[in-house]
Predict the structure.
Amino acid sequence: MKVKIVQTKEELDTVFDIRIKVFVHEQHVPIEEEIDEYENDSVHFLLYDAENSIGTGRFRIVNGIGKVERICVLSEKRKRGSGKCIMQGIEEYARRQNINKLMLHGQTHAEKFYNHLGYKTVSDVFFEAGIPHVVMEKEII
């Protein structure tokens, strides 16, 4: 598997296709909430399995902290380390940008996944797009 930073409009379209499959169709997030005003201010990542794009994530800086967002993997490609691979790619990028703290809004069903990657829960449960989330943070070197 390989993670790459999105460079072209075609790659960005692929990012949106994956996110729509996972978040809009599978999790019933309204499209107007999924594709938002931060798309142009974010760095987008694509995960490839051989020649196929299978997952994505995005990163942006909010108040000096790296915010990891929109992590998703196509359903048939989950449970193979795909999500971890995306997160490692984003963390590596953040380090190169001299960002030493990351945060994310993790869906509660994925909280253990993020815990295994070193993220700590720092909030109570709240809802985004009708889905329970928690704020999680991680210091990186």
